Amino acid sequence: MLSSTRLAPATVVPGLIAGLVGAATIDVYLLGVFVAAAHLFTLGRFFSFIATGAIGKSAYGEPESAWLGLAIHVAVSLAWGVGYAYAASRAPQLNARPITSGIVFGIVVMIAMQLVEVAANIYTLPNTFVLLNEFVAHTLFFGIPVAWIVAARSHAAS
User: Fold this and answer.
1) Is the pLDDT of residue 63 over 90?
2) Dihedral in degrees, nearest 10, Cα atoms 77, 78, 79, 81
């Protein structure tokens, strides 16, 4: 059995890398859909929405809240990445099928983040367009990249 000091870098580093890549890929997708294509948000309002989970709806009136939202988003993505890497270190079968594992992981993340929005009282019932895009974003542009990177880093370490 590996000692906890040897296990930590093998779990944390791939998780941080995967979380960072997952944050970037999901943001590129969501910004492309909601900001560029659908014109539903501005870039600042997109990240201010994330900040509303921490400081409430007043985030929409404060331009600095976009930076807070970006920081929160990256921190949460890093935490999800490390969490997935930890789970994959305990259940190696996750690394054997990164696409399937990533899709399931993305669904778990999507549901958890919707629950966070409900708890923060910023949840609005999504329409079909938003729900479909949330599903695509969390599975294809977050879950799969995180699972793929963790699996690749795991195989490289072996």
Assistant:
1) no
2) 90
Tell me how far apart the alpha carbons of residues 50 and 72 are, in angstroms, rounded to a whole number: 7
Q: Which domain holds residue 18?
A: 11-157
For the beta carbon of residue 55, count every other beta carbon within 10 angstroms. 15
* 83 located within any domain: yes
Band the pLDDT of 57: cuts 50, 70, 90.
confident
State the Cα–Cα distance between residues 137 and 53, nearest whole angstrom: 19
Residue 45 has pLDDT above 70, yes or no: yes
- CA–CA gap between residue 98 and residue 94 (Å, rounded): 6
Let me know: does 12 contact 87? Beta carbons within 8 Å. no
Looking at the domain assignment, is residue 1 inside a domain? no
Q: Measured in whole angstroms, how far is the alpha carbon of residue 99 from the centre of its chain? A: 16
Domain for residue 127, yes or no? yes
In a domain, 118, yes or no: yes
pLDDT score of 126: 74
pTM of the model: 0.87
Give 39's pLDDT tier (boundaries 50, 70, 90). confident
Domains in the chain, number? 1
User: Rounded to whole angstroms, how far apart are CA atoms 120 and 112?
Assistant: 12
Burial (CB count <10 Å: 0-12, 13-18, 19+), residue 101: buried
